[in-house]
Amino acid sequence: MPTPTTEIILSPAPALQPATLFTPTPKAARRVLEFFTAQVNNNHTRKAYLNPTRRFAAWCDQKGIGQLADVQAFHVAAFPWAGKQNGGPSKQADGNELMKLSH
Predict the structure, then answer these.
(1) Which residues are CB-neighbours of 21 under 8 A, at least 6 positions away?
(2) Is the separation of the CB atoms in 79 and 94 below 8 Å?
(3) What pTM was computed for the model?
(4) Alpha-carbon distance 28 to 17, whole Å?
(5) Which of 26, 57, 70, 98 could hold 21 in an S-S bridge, CB 3.0 to 4.6 Å?
């Protein structure tokens, strides 16, 4: 029979699961979860930050950037213009949100 424990296991809702780029270690995953749950209290703001980070992670994956440590400032700067170069709308707002998160 398993020993009872008082350990709390966090299991965020799928909507709050950050991209794996931002969660390379359990400690990083916890810090990202804390940021999106404890520091960003408004649901609309949380989505406004979380969605661009997911798109940025997907963009990094397409560029072969698999680790957060490999992301440089010029990657963040280039990201808003990637959609425009591919014939889609510019994601300037995404870049603005990513720059806010980097500070």
Answers:
(1) 56, 57, 60, 61, 65, 66, 67, 68, 71
(2) yes
(3) 0.64
(4) 13
(5) 57
